[in-house]
Structure formats: C-alpha cells, structure tokens
Amino acid sequence: MKRTITLLFLIFSVLSFAQTTDYKKAPLKKGANYFDVVNEMRQELAPLTQSTSKTDIKKIKQFERWAFYWKDRVDLQGNFPSELLGFYNAGLLNADGTIASNNFSRSTQSSQSWSNVGPQTVPDANGYPNAPQMGRLTSYKKFSKVPEAQSVLFVTAPVGGIWKSTDNGATWSPKLDQLAAIGVTDLDALSIDANTPGTIYVSTGDYDADHIKSIGVLKSTDFGETYQSTGLSFTLDQQETTSNLIVIDDNTVIVGTNQYIKKTTDGGLTWTNKYTHNYNDAAIGKFHRNGTNIMACDSWGGLLFSSDNGETWIQLIVEGNSYTRHATTADEATGIFYVQNEAGQVSTYNPVDATPTLTALGIPSTGYNAQGVYNQAIVVKNGLIISGGVDAINSDNNGGVWYTTLNNAWEDNTSAGSYGHADIHEMGARSGSNYDFWAVNDGGLIYFNYTGIADEKPTVNYISDGVIVTQIYSVAISPQSEDHKIIGNQDNDGYSLEMKNGTLQWVSALAGDGTCTAIDYTNPQIRYLGAQNGVLSRTDIGFPSYDSATFLTTPTTGAPFVWTLKMNSTIPTTLYGGFAEVYKTTDKGANWSNLNSGAGQISYIETFGNNLLVIGENGARKSSNDGVAWSAISEPEANAKLNSLSLDQNNNSTIYATVNGYVDGSKVFKSTNGGSSWTNISAGLPNVKMTQVVFKQNQGANEILFAGTEIGAYFKTGTGNWEKLGQGLPNVNISDIEINYTVDKLVAGTYGRGLWEISINNTTLGVNEIATTADQTPIIYPNPALEDKLNIKIPNNTDTFEYVMYNVVGGIVSKGQLNPGVNTIDVKNISTGVYVIRMVNGNFVSSQKVIIN
User: Fold this and answer.
1) Which terminus of the chain is more solvent-facing, meaning fewer CB atoms within 10 Å of its CB: N or C?
2) Half-sphere exposure (CA, 13 Å, Cβ side) for 430?
3) Which residues neighbour 820 within 8 Å (Cβ) at sequence distance 6 or greater?
4) What does the buried/exposed string (b/e) look like for 518-528 if buried means 16 or more CB atoms within 10 Å of the residue's CB?
C-alpha cells in the first residue's frame, strides 16, 4: 500500500520556524558583521535546539556549517572578506578573475608526491540502512557512445572540482585540481554525443549553499580536459553568483548572475545583459529550457519566462520580500512547464495557451523541505512528477496525493520509498524506459528507476563511486602503521579504515557530522568519533557494524558545533575535549572534569606529555602540569587571533602558532618564551587562510614545520622560507594534519578532496642529516622486544648516543643516553605497539623502528 505523508506534518514544518536573519546574504552586504549575524541566528534557532524534527535539526546544521566556514576568514572586527581572496592572493586567479596560467605551484625541495589514501570508493555500508556516501555534487552531464560502456560522464562539486568518466561511470578522474577549492555549480554542452561533444561550459561557485562565490563562466574545447576563462569573469570585489547554464549551441549560452540574465553568442568572448533585476542580490537561476522557451527564478520568489531563447523576458511572478525561489522543469512531451515554490506548491504554465497563466496543481507536496533554497529540484516524465528537497516526493495524479519515494531515513522495506541520500540539488530524466531518472545530492550521483507510474520504491544505483569529494573535518591515525585510520566528515558521518572479513577496508560509522576523531595508539580497536555539539561515541572493538560504538555522556552544553578532541600523547586513556571549556577524562570518556582554563568555549587543543595548550573565545592558555595551573598566551599581533598552536615537547618554551584572517605577512609565528612574545616566521607563505601548524617532534636541532592552508600544505625547515609541500596535492583546503611518526608520513584531511598522505623523511625535505655508517649504526635486539627488555648495542669505536623513543603521535615514552657496548632498556611499562628510536651522535643520526609486544 502506498504511504502518504499527512498535511499536518507539512503545516508543522512550515510553522515551526520563521527565519528573519538572512545569514547567507550577509557577506554581500556592506557593513555586515559576522559576530552580529552569528549571535542573531543562534538566538533565532535557540527554540529548535531541543527539537527532534529532522527539519529543525537541518536548519541548525546549515547555519552552523556556514558559521564554521567563515570563522577563520573574518577579521577581528567581524568584517567579511571575499571568499575568493586567498585564491587571488596565491596567484591562482588574476586580478580580473580569470584563471592564472601558472597556477599550480611546486616544491623545489620536497620532490615527494602526495597519494590519496581514501576512501576512493564508497565505504562498506557496514549494516547502515541509510549509509553515508562520498560528498555533495551539483550537476551531471552524459555524452552517449556506442557501446554504452564507453559513454562519457561529468559531475561537478561545490568543492572538489570537475570529475570525468570515460567508461560510463566505472572510473572517474579529476579535471580541475588547480582550482579544487573553488566550487562548480554546473557543467553543460549542447551535444549529448561523445563522438562530437562540442564546447563545454562551466558555471563556477556554489549556487545552492552560497559558500563560494563565482569566478564566472569557464569553457573547454578539448572535451573537458582543460578549462579557460571566458569574457564573463569577476573581480575580487564583485561577490558574484552564477547559476546553472542554458547552452543553445556551441557559441550561445545563457546564465544568471546576482542581478542580470546574461547571454553570449560568440562563445563567451562577450556577454550581453538580457534582463536586469530590481535587486542586486537576486541570484537569478534554476533555468530550464524547452525549445525556445526558458523559465527562470530569482531568490526573492520571482519567476521569469522567455519565449525567444532568452532575448526578452517577462515576469510571471513579481519578486517578494523574502529569500525564496522556485524549482523549474518542463514535460518534454507536452512542452508544459512545472514550477514549485519553497512551500511545495507545484504550478503549471503552458506557453501555447492563448493567454498562458500559472495554474496551481493539486496540493503542496507534503513532506517537502527545501532548507531555505539549499535543495530544490523537480522533474516530470510521462505523468510522474518528482519533487526533490531533503527527500524526493512524487505524485502520479497531478499533485493530488504525494508519496515519499527517495527517503534519506530509510530503514528497511517497511519504510516509505527507497533509500536516497539527503538533499537533492538537481534531477533529470534519463533516456531508456519510461521512468528512468538521475539525481545529484549531498552523497553523489544516483540513477533511479521505476517499474511503472504507481511504483513508489524505485531501484537506486550509486554511480559516482570513485569521485573523491569527501569533506573531512578530522583524521586520526593508528599505532601500528598507516593502515588504520578514522575520519569524520561533513554530512556523511565517519569512515573507519580497519580489518573486516579479512580485508582492510573503509567502513561506515554513525556520526551525522563527524567533527572529531581519535584512535588509542596502544590498541587500534579503541576508536572515538565525535558528532556535532560535543556528542561523542567510543568503540572498544572497532566498527563491526556502523552503530557498534557507545555514545558517552559528555558536557555538551555550550560545546561548539565543530568541536575538538585530543588524546594525551603518552596516556591514551586520557583525553581532552573542547566544550564550553576544556575538559579532561582519564577513563576513556566515562567521566569528565572541567580544567577551568579560563579560555571559554574551546576551538583548538594541543598536548604533548603534561603540556596542554588551548585556544578559546577568551584567548589562548597553556599548562605545563596537565591542566592543574594555567597561564595566558599572548596574541602574536593586535590585528589577528590565534587559531592553532603547536609546541616542542623537548623544550616547552618553544611554541608555534597560526592566526586567522587575511593580513599579508601575518600567518605563522614562533615564541621561545612560552607565548609571552612572538617572532613572525611567515616568509614564503601567500596571504591565504591558515588552518593549522604542526611541529615535527624529536628531530634534535632540526626545526621542521608543516602548515595546512586553504590551498594545500606548506613546510619549512630551519631558517628557510615556507614552500609548497610535495607534488600532486590539489589546491584545496586542509582541515586537519597529523604526523604518523612510525612511518614518517604526513596525513592531511581535506575539505572536499578526501584524505592524502606524503613521506616527510627528513632527507626528502632537504634537512642536512648524516646517517650513521655501517660500523657506527647501533644494533637493536631482540626486535620485537622480549621479556620487557630491549637491548641496544653501540659499537665500541663510537662515542655516546642520545636517544629518544616515541610513539605514532610523537609522544616520548623513553629517552636517555646510550654508551658504547650493550645498553638494556626496560620497556615493561611501555604499551604494545610500534615505536621509533632516534639515536644521535654529534652530526650522525640513526632512526630505527621497534616493536613492543
């Protein structure tokens, strides 16, 4: 029996929240203040914080993600910069907004190449009935070929670039890595034939979420391999939006901007305004074309129509006074247009009528939720109407009754519809049977097919397996090797890399937004995965199923949406949580105590041994006795705020820091007196947003630093300048970096291009070290250690060695002096695992891996 969603639910959803602060448009408004907008929105959303309604929860999530995106970009006064400022400053874009020709900087010292370490394909569902997928996509284009297996597909992402498949979706490769952090709204061409693809056009930015502004329209004349700017490019201060595209022929294209509908007839060389809106923030778009007829909407609820391929336009609905818009489509068989407003009401418009008018069709689609204007899509084919919002709702009787058909909360076959990832951005009809469709959503690209018009449970196939656009918040690494990891993702829960059914693989783990992670470096089965606002779960057996972790009781009141968790570097049962204050647990999260640092709500934690550094809303604090006593860390400069810290655990007076915002030359700082005063060490860094600085521990006199930025990773050794680290990493935001000391690799979680790693062996970084000769090298035995003893034989022809033994995260577990002859180290109090012993004799260094059983 078909299952309906009652009208009562719709009424409740509509009435439960009335948003008055238009936060997405704030960066466009002169004088807008980030802190004021955040305070106003949190007050407005406060009544929803106790709600269990998914509609209410999603409203909060959408805002908090926006707030987190801007947190480190605004200046201390709350002024918004351009979202594109870092890309201009780094030379990726020219001053006129066009793509710079030499825009993929390379390292001169580090010749190592980055490797993507996953997940490259959708993780095992692990029992998850509505399992997470790889990340949001915004558009889809197919070029057909015979045989079908050679058809060419394209998808685009709001962060992660453009992806192309030449084998009908079996494998995918990225095509815009030099601008991977800049969003893509749409890709289209007139042709649908892979043998004669013609010119491809690309609309940039993130039209739906409005996080990234457009750099204009790009084009490709080599079937999507490379892209060039057209005459529609935007300078830094224009803060523009471009919509989906209407490609009429290889030279004729229509696109919407904030105020205009623009058209080119010369392949993008010049663009003419064909319609001028009353407002300069209308974000005209959601175009749909049938023949010479085109429908478009604006973000003030207005609706526009052209019957002459976009030369002239009329208003079918005059814009209102709230941020709303319509979704549009047309029935290709009849030419009738269908439009749906934000309240879910579908109307029709038949251009061939003598006096065409908009006519309401049926009742509003019950259960429809567009999250403002974040997800709106509609498609019609052979009498079946499918409406896309958070879920897909369909009707087979002209909107008289609506049914859930793609259900993001699907549990089993008793649930309404079939499983489809939440938040549908575009949909369309596929060639084939009467009821074949495609959709792009926050998980990727799906094909879905109905056996007939009355079928409410379509067959759903995920097509974009291999499109790596996962938006990572946090990554944690295992004790034994690089083979075990856990990551937390935006809107796609967590992925845990572990052994399952005898195979090392990525599996799904329940989180919602996976905001923080940790792995016990003495036992990789013990894993932590945090969700938004301080929610935390722990598993002691890995993830044999997606929900095998136990949710812990944490001090969630006042915790940030994206919060931080840090494990003590030598005592894995001790963790620190960034809630309304910094809290500590010594029993794996069972109980928490407030350390009362005075920093307020915490945004960053760093710890080595008894050293604890935190950054909060009231500034930065440090403790050298595990939080018993605290002292203030000063801000490096008056015009910036600390947003990450690192320290030398062998000399805790040496601290490194990054700051927020876009002040040229003010990026990374060093203190040699515990944070009382600072030296600027930013030379070589472009004026981009800094994410994190990490000091490589236990390298003796060698100072080695790594920094994550919004355009990739940089490194610095000694007194040298910063430079780009390695080869092949897309220009994308680094959200978290960790060093795996047992394999000497840097692991980087990116926001939009998944997880990467690179060798950071000192010699590959240009660090001048002299390896011990064969007759000088210390001999370690037995290895693995037996009976709690580890012997190190120092040749009699050498002098004394100093040694440091440290774990996967760099925490020191033993240190001391090794004399000529046999030295025995007691390891009975050192946990099982893989460790590194670094032994230094003057300028000679020997680093060896040891195993403690």
Assistant:
1) N
2) 19
3) 794, 795, 796, 798, 799, 800
4) bbbbbbbbbbb
Closest CA to 84 of 219, 236, 300: 236
Dihedrals φ, ψ of 606, to 5°?
A: -135, 140
Beta strands per DSSP E along 442-501? 445-449, 459-462, 472-477, 485-489, 494-500
- Averaged pLDDT for residues 615-636: 98
- Tell me whether residue 370 is exposed, middle or buried, using C-beta atoms within 10 angstroms of its C-beta: 0 to 12, 13 to 18, 19 or more: buried
Residue type, 372: G
pLDDT tens for each residue of 684-714: 999 999 999 999 999 999 999 999 999 999 9
CA dist., res. 209 & res. 212, Å (int) = 8
Give the CA dihedral 200, 206, 207, 209, nearest 10 degrees: 150
Residues β-bridged to residue 349: 337
What SS3 state is found at 532?
A: helix
Contacts of 144 (CB under 8 A, 6+ apart): 151, 192, 193, 194, 431
pLDDT per residue as tens digits for the range 398-431:
999 999 999 999 999 999 999 999 999 999 999 8
The DSSP result for 314-354, as a single string, is EEEE---SSSB--EEEE-TTT--EEEE-TTS-EEEE-TTSS
Q: What is the maximum span of the chain, computed from C-alpha positions, in angstroms?
A: 103
Pairing assessment for the beta strands 503-509 and 734-740 based on DSSP bridges: unpaired
Closest to 178 measured CA to CA, from 229, 117, 231: 229
Q: Which two structure tokens, joined as six digits, stand for 428?
A: 């369309």
Q: Look at phi and psi of residue 825 and say left if phi exceeds 0, alpha if psi is from -120 to 50, else beta.
A: beta
Closest by alpha carbon to 616, among 628, 602, 629?
Answer: 602
What CA–CA distance (Å, rounded) separates 263 from 281? 19
